[in-house]
Amino acid sequence: MQSKTRMNVYFDPALLKQVEALSLRRNVSKSAVIEAAVASFLSADASERLEAVFARRMDKLGRQIDGLDEELAILGETVSLFVRFWLTITPPLSETAHASARAKGAERFDGFLQTLGRRLATGDSFLKELSRDVDSLRSDSLDSDSGRTNGDPA
After folding, report:
1. What are the C-alpha distances in Å from 57 to residues 5, 41, 62, 87, 99?
2. How many CA atoms lie within 13 A of 152 on its CB side?
3. CA distance between the termini of the chain
4. Is the model's pLDDT at 80 over the cut of 80?
5. Could you give the CA distance from residue 117 to residue 112 in angstroms, rounded to a whole number?
6. Closest CA to 9 of 28, 33, 25
7. Predicted confidence (pLDDT) per residue in 118-137, tens digit
8. Which CDD domains does this UniProt record tie to the protein (predicted)?
9. How many CB atoms lie within 10 A of CB 61?
C-alpha cells in the first residue's frame, strides 16, 4: 500500500461546498476529489484534452448552425414565394369592402395563431412536413425511374 502525505489547505467556503457535494454524489472522500482535481490540473495532457473537448463541441455547434442556416433559407424562400403569389392573384378591394375584409382578416389571423400554437405544442413543423413531402417525392421519382429500361425516358 502506498503511503500518502497529509496536507492542510484552505478553501473558499463555496468551493468547499462544491467539493463536498461532488464527494457525496460520487460516494468518494473529499480527499479523493481534491487529489483527482490536482492530478488533472498538473497533467501534461489536460490542456490537450480540454482543447479536444472544445473542438468537438465547436464542430457540433458549427454543424447545428449550418442546419439552421439551411432551414432559414428555406423559410425565407417560402415566405417570398407566398408573398409574391398572394400579391399577384389578390385583386384590390373597393373602399366599401375594407371593413368587412379587416374583420374577416382578424378572424382568420386568430385561427392561424391557434393552429400555430397547436403545431408548436406538438413539435410538428413546416420544415419536418416539407422534408417528409420531399422525401416522398424523391422515393416516388426513384420508383418510377427504376421501372424504365435501357435508360430511356418514359
Report:
1. 39, 21, 9, 45, 55
2. 3
3. 81
4. yes
5. 9
6. 33
7. 888 888 777 778 778 888 88
8. RHH_CopG_NikR-like
9. 10
**Residue 124 φ then ψ, to 5°:** -80, 135
In angstroms and rounded to an integer, the radius of gyration of the C-alpha atoms of the chain is 31
Helix (H, G, I), strand (E, B) or coil at 3: coil
Quickly state the pLDDT bin for 154 (edges 50, 70, 90). very low
103/93 Cα distance (integer angstroms): 14
- The proportion of the chain whose per-residue pLDDT surpasses 70, expressed as a percent, equals 93
The alpha helices in 9-125, defined as continuous H runs, are 13-26, 30-42, 46-89, 98-122
**Are 126 and 133 spatial neighbours (Cβ–Cβ below 8 Å)?**
no
- Looking at residue 144, its pLDDT comes to 74
Q: What's the rounded Cα separation, in Å, for the pair 93 and 137?
A: 38
- CA–CA separation, 48 and 150 (whole Å): 56
